[in-house]
Every structure is written in C-alpha cells, then in structure tokens.
Amino acid sequence: PGLCIPSFCADYRQHCLIETPKSWFDAQSYCRERGYDLATIDDMGAMKSLLALNPERAHDWWIGLHYGAPEEWHWSLADEEFYQKGERNYRNFQNMDVTNSFVSHEHGKWYTVDHANLWFICYDDRYVLVRQVMSWTGAQLYCRKHHTDLVSIRNPEENQAVWKAILRYNVLIGLFKDAWHWSDKRNSSFRHWEQDSFVGLFPESCAVMTSQRPGRWSQRSCHDLHPFLCTCKQPLSGVVLVISYKEIKYMQ
C-alpha cells in the first residue's frame, strides 16, 4: 500500500476500501479510531464512482447504514441542491397510518400505503406519469434508470402541478419512511436497495453494497464479517485503494 498523492487529497470526500473483513461495529470503530467514519453515500454520483472499481475486487462491503433509529420521512431524491430551506418538510397528508412506509397521491391529497403496487410519477425537469403497476422500490429503480427519480413535492404549487399531471389516478410519489441512519449522523435520504428493506430483518441489521447485483444494497446481520468503506479526507495507512467522487487511483 502507498500514500495518496497530493492532488488526490483535495477537500471533497473520499471513500477508502479496507479489505480486512470485520463486523459492522468493528469496522465502525476502525474508521472512527482514525478520525473518519463508515461511508455515507449521498447520491448516484457517489455510487457510480464506487461501481468503477475493478470487478476482481467484488465483495459485499459494509457501508455506514444501520437499522434502529426513530422512523423519519425522506424524499427519494437526495440531492441537497434541489431543496431550499424547509422544502424537504412540505407535507399534505389526508390520512396517515403510522404502520405504512410509503405515500400515494390522489386528488391533491397524500395517503400512506403499505407495499402497494400502483402507477407512479417520475421527475425529470417535468412530471412523467408511468402507467405501469410497480412496488415503491420498483418504481424508484425505474425512475432512476429512465428519468431522475420518483417525484418530490416541495410546496403547494408543485402539489397542484402533480395533481394536474396525474389526473384522477392514485399514484406513488417519492416520499418514504424508514428507521435507517448513517453512522456519521449525516441526514442523507439516499437509498439504493436491491429489494424492499425498510424493516430490519435481523436482531441487528446493517447495510452492504452487494456483489451479486453490483451497487445494490442489501441487509446483513451486523455481526457478519465483510470488507468495508470508510469516508475520509486524507489517506489511511494500509488502504488498498482510495475512491473519490472524481477519479480512482489504485494504490501501489
């Protein structure tokens, strides 16, 4: 292993892959003891950089997502620049069942739904009604592949515009609720699940980037042993490679 070159130690965040398998908690301690933390992945730009890794290094990697925090509502589109102050918190619920994790939109009002298969609306500088029946996670994957993401609604004016775009139909929007949180306490709402993973499946559930479907996230018991990703601004000694959002350098 070597040190990262000066041009690579810029102020943007980097991801450092540690190939020694550890439990999620031991991996968290390893990163924190060196002044960093397990990796937070903020958006698809970060995901694309991570996916550019040499496929021979395919592993399930721990990331910093852990199940067990109080449930919160998030928008699927996590881009911070998309929202002005307070816009992430706009809501227009007609009814709210606390046991449901997803939201549909009908006649301008919002309704909580539980794993319903519905039509949905994507966003891509315009509103795109998709007349295919899918789960919320399936709709999210579709929108990210063909457009930008499931629609976010930031204010009453946008809520009215979405109502006009979907006419009389009941459709899924990009709001969801989960109890996952990031190790470094960042409030990123970005999720990239392989399948619905909004409820923990193990007594202690943590998230990995999977090797079976590269880039998708899945749940594992936090006590399983996997390589892991730290987020850092300076290189760690013994790191095999350092991944930034801008370029990749393999360590010699």
From TrEMBL:
Residues 12-110, 127-231 form the C-type lectin domain. SUPFAM superfamilies: C-type lectin-like (SSF56436). Pfam families: Lectin_C. PANTHER family: C-TYPE LECTIN DOMAIN FAMILY 20 MEMBER A-RELATED, C-TYPE LECTIN DOMAIN FAMILY 4 MEMBER K-LIKE-RELATED. This is C-type lectin domain-containing protein.
